[in-house]
Each structure stands twice: as C-alpha cells, then as structure tokens.
Amino acid sequence: MKKTIIALSTLTALTSFGLSAQQTPDEINQSGIYVGGNYGYLRVEGEDDFDDDKDVWQGILGYKFNTWVAVEGSYIDFGDYGSSLAGAETDGYTLALKGMVPVAGGLSAYAKLGQLWSDTDYRLAGVTTSEDDESLFVGAGLSYAFSPNLLVNAEYVVYDTELDAEAAFDDIDDTNFETDLKQASIGIEYRF
C-alpha cells in the first residue's frame, strides 16, 4: 500500500509540474464542480477482538462555492474486516460541508463535517445478514494545487459508527460492537 501511495504521489507531482505554470490565488480559488478519489488506510477500532486495519477507497464529487466553502459527496468502500469466524464489510455514501482556508501559494487547509449512510454485511460462523446505518463524521486535511485544476489532498477522517451486530443477529448474545472507523488517505482532485 505504501508503494502505491508513493508512486501515485510522485506521478501526480511530476505530471503537474510539467503541465503547470505559475498560478495566481484567484485561479486556484475559483468556484465550480470537482471530482476526485482517495486511497488510504482504514483503522477499525471496536470492542472485543474486532480491531482490524484495511485499505479504503473513495470516489468524490463536490461543488466549491467560493474560496472557503464547498459541499462534497462521495461513495466509500471500507472493505472487509474481522476474522474468518466473525467479520463485516461496509460501504456507503457521504455528504459533507467542507470549509477551506488558503495558507500560502497553492497550499490550503480544510475541515469536513458530514453524514455517512452505510450498509454493513455481517457474517458470523457462516451466517450472514445486512444492516443499514447512519453516522456522523469529522475530518481535516491539507490540499496542494499543482495547477488551477489539479490538486493533491492528504486527510484524516473519523466516522463515529456503531456497528450493532446484536441487531443483525437477534438470537446471539454478547455480540454488540461499538466501532469507530478512522481513515487516513491521500487523493487527487480535478476541478472543472
């Protein structure tokens, strides 16, 4: 995973430096639609022995209103975590309000606050079931614009999720998990 992240960052940087000229802050901070993708590391922290580390993938669609505010939606795949005896697979959609602050040149800091609508497929000793959930999340990151259209992001997001296996498996005792999903990722953003 680390080699993929390093290769992706290096390729983006070299391409961007070759394509971009000196840009003005007005060019970087224009409003409009953007798309992007993130790849990173997911830490699943919960009660009992349900802790796990996995890759996470995310596709993003957003609209930047001005220099400081954007709204952002995404599809996110948290992957499969747990053990062969008991585990889960979660994916979902997010909607967030994103606040941005230009720092210097093409560097900006941002914070997100939003909602995750997720679907979790549980499995326990060969039995599977599914449950929908809603949870809040908060995140922060840094963004660097190599050109007015191409940016690289690094962010950290915490999803306050309760994956309640007891509701999914009504006939099994002591299976209540309270879980937080913590995501650290890098990504590329393209502004139209």
Automatic annotation (TrEMBL):
Gene3D superfamilies: 2.40.160.20. The keyword rRNA processing does not apply. Residues 12-192 form the Outer membrane protein beta-barrel domain. Residues 1-21 form the signal peptide. InterPro entries: Beta-barrel_OMP, OMP/PagP_B-barrel. Keywords: Signal. This is Porin family protein.
